[in-house]
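User: Study the shape:
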Amino acid sequence: MRRAREGPPFSFHPETGRALNPKKTVEQVLKDCTPGLMAVPGVVGTGQGLHAGKPCILIMVAVRVPKLERKIPDRIEGYPVRIQVTGTIHPLSDEG
């Protein structure tokens, strides 16, 4: 199933060739995008992982279905996205 694609993580100044928007760290990207991702029905968490030895963004879902996959991009700000089925996640109780 194909998911939405995203453009390059930054652009270059036409005269100097310098990056206009340097690439953010995966931690910065997660901080910025997690609220929006968590608003997608079926997404139960986000996190950082590795794919081919490089940082990636993990999107944790209760159940993997095509309708949900279409709402999750292949990349976010240049980082690959991987979907991980975790089932429903419940917070731990404060009681010991």
